[in-house]
Amino acid sequence: MRPDAIIKTLEDAGFEARYVGGCVRDTLLDRPIHDWDIASQALPEDVLRLFPHCVPTGIRHGTVTVLLDGVSAEVTTYRLDGAYHDGRHPDGVRFVRSLAEDLARRDLTVNAMAMDVRGDITDLYGGRDDLRRGILRCVGDPDKRFDEDALRIMRTLRFAAVLGFTVEAHTAAALHRCAPLLRDIAAERLLTEMDRLLCGGYVLPVLLAYPDVLGVFLPELLPCVGLDQRNRHHRRVGAYRPLCGGYSTGAGAALGHAAPRRGQARLLHRGRTGRGTLLRTSQGVGSAGGGDLPPPADGQAHRP
Questions:
Q1: What φ, ψ does residue 40 adopt, rounded to 5°?
Q2: What's the average model confidence in pLDDT over 66-76?
Q3: Is the dihedral of CA 193, 194, 196, 197 positive or negative?
Q4: How far apart are CA 56 and CA 226, in angstroms?
Q5: I need a surface site. Which of 2, 94, 107, 132 has the fewest CB within 10 A?
């Protein structure tokens, strides 16, 4: 159920409020909505005063979770983000009164739209057109967006895998350039995004187009890229695609899921134990060696 009562309560108190982000995108795509996000002129203390059942989930950044009539929504004050020195979170935020300023800080155009309770859309960056065309494009400079929060790199790839969208050329180039920033992201956050990416119905093109990005935190993938397996065991494979041990489409794509998912166990274990430790997986025990594999033999593999 859409939490219109929360927006109406805010508006009755004199504060502009709109649905924003993924719930607007999924409404336009007619997809199920699991989380409702509301942006408003109301300050956190205003929200806490207006609603008796609240949880200050991210009050330092202006976010309060409101529960009303059996429905919850995150209500966040319109804001501008400060500098990102940790590559993940802003050092601080400045609350503003303008919806336009709030939308300008968002990652992708398809996530930078707002909607009122009547269903009227505010779209300042062409997000609705990008939805129709199946395009993922950053708001503003993609290098800046990914430098601010490197997890946006994985979010973009996850959206491509789940929605079947194409990444716009400038944004795609920035994904490759900024991939090393993923080294500073917590393994647990990468694992969550990788799980959702791999469960996407359009994961195959993403795995084929961005092995260098995924290889930043799963270096086990890189020797598989371009590996020639046309031996007597693979001669009859049609539409052969040499990634993650080689797979094509349909049932073969499931084999492609298995290789990176086994690597996820290594990813999470490495993140918890540090570099240069032993990796215990279902495949046995081996040395992490700092996360790098020996260079492949000439003619056997290459990075794209």
A1: -150, 160
A2: 95
A3: positive
A4: 49
A5: 132
Contact (Cβ atoms closer than 8 angstroms) between residue 227 and residue 301: yes
203 CB-near residues (< 8 Å, 6+ apart): 161, 197, 253, 256, 257
d(CA 244, CA 246): 6
Phi, psi angles (nearest 5°) of residue 184: -95, 0
The residues, any chain, with a CB within 8 Å of residue 274's CB and separated by 6 or more, are: none
- The pLDDT-based confidence of 296 (bands split at 50, 70, 90) is very low
Distance CA 157, CA 257 (A): 15
d(CA 197, CA 157): 7
Task: Quote the tokens at residue 264.
Answer: 């996820």
Query: Is the per-residue pLDDT at 235 higher than 60?
Result: no
Tokens at residue 161, please?
A: 């895998």
Residue 162 dihedral angles phi and psi, to the nearest 5°? -85, -40
CA atoms within 13 A on the CB side of 220: 19
230: confidence class by pLDDT, cuts 50, 70, 90 = confident
Mean predicted confidence (pLDDT) in 7-17:
98
39: number of CA atoms within 13 Å, CB side? 28
| C-alpha closest to that of 178 among 142, 135, 223, 215 | 142
